[in-house]
Amino acid sequence: MLSYHTKHLTEAGCDEAGRGCLAGPVFAAAVILPPDYHHPLLTDSKQLDKDTRDQLRKTIEAEALHFAVAHCTPQEIDKINILWASVRAMHKALAMLSVQPDQILVDGNHFKAFRHIPHHCIIKGDATYFSIAAASILAKTYRDEYMEQLHLDFPQYHWHENKGYPTPAHRKAIEAFGPTIHHRKSFRLLPESTQTLLFDDY
Fold first, then answer.
1. Which ranges of 18-63 does DSSP label H, i.e. alpha helix?
2. Where in the chain are the domains?
3. Closest CA to 125 of 13, 50, 10
4. Distance between CA 155 and CA 91 in Å, rounded?
């Protein structure tokens, strides 16, 4: 793992969580870490268990110089598609930072320029740069927490377990109870023959 892309620049790492979900917002985080930052456990959030992610979230929030977390709603996702909603969520998080970075490091291969700040798209960036890994931890843990809260109002969908991802149990619940306002209408929630009937009364 690397502490920086370009030495002596203030770099913000960005990542998102929830692109592949059927329900809930897409979350994104932006994190600026101290120069030469290192943590032995910090890596791509998908490679870590829940307890480690939760502990790292506390560490990141305590040790980052600046961080912000934002999201785009299912309605925004349906309007502009999930890719650009993910980028918009990153832009929202960057705009919330208390300082403007000199450079932005983004996980993946798609981004739109933010305030003319130079940026680099890095495949598997969350397993390469500490700042992106930190952003992936915050985006994931904040989103999971959000879905666990939504579960209290919609327990039949088991969002406390699947977090909105397309598990068989989640799809069975959609078929049995129909979609909610938190489901993404532009996604294939069920097989095509059934999908066309889902939103008739939505």
1. 50-63
2. 11-151, 155-198
3. 13
4. 32
